[in-house]
Amino acid sequence: MNLVARILTIALLVGFTGFCVFGFLASAEYQGVQKLMWQITYALAGLAALVGIFTAAQSKPEQRD
């Protein structure tokens, strides 16, 4: 993955992670099972985005011959 693609990917995933954090906090307004469902959804999406951020940050740049 080239440098520009890595930077764009990480920037988009950081924004999405922020969205998930705010969604998780806002889901506290719900009651009962609905609250738990939204919190699990936002938590899983946020964790997936964090994994994507770390994966993109760890990927090695392409080698040009």
Describe the structure.
The protein is mainly alpha-helical and 65 residues long. The protein has one domain. It is built from 2 helices and no strands. The protein has helices at residues 3-26, 32-58. α1 runs antiparallel to α2. The radius of gyration is 16 Å and the shape is elongated. The relative contact order is 0.20. The mean pLDDT is 92.
Summarize the structure.
With 65 residues, this protein is mainly alpha-helical. Helix content is 78%, strand content 0%.
Distance between the ends: 15 Å
> For the residues shown, what is the average pLDDT?
92
Number of helices: 2
Largest sheet: none
SSE run: HH
Q: Tally of extended strands?
A: 0
Question: What gyration radius follows from the Cα positions, in whole Å?
Answer: 16 Å
Helix content: over 70%
**Please, how many domains?**
1
Broad structural category? mainly alpha
- How large a portion of the residues is in β-strands, by DSSP E? under 5%
Uncertain segments are none
Large-scale geometry: elongated
Secondary structure blueprint with pairings:
Elements: H1 3-26, H2 32-58
Helix pairs in contact: 1-2
Keywords:
single chain; 65 residues; mainly alpha; 0% strand
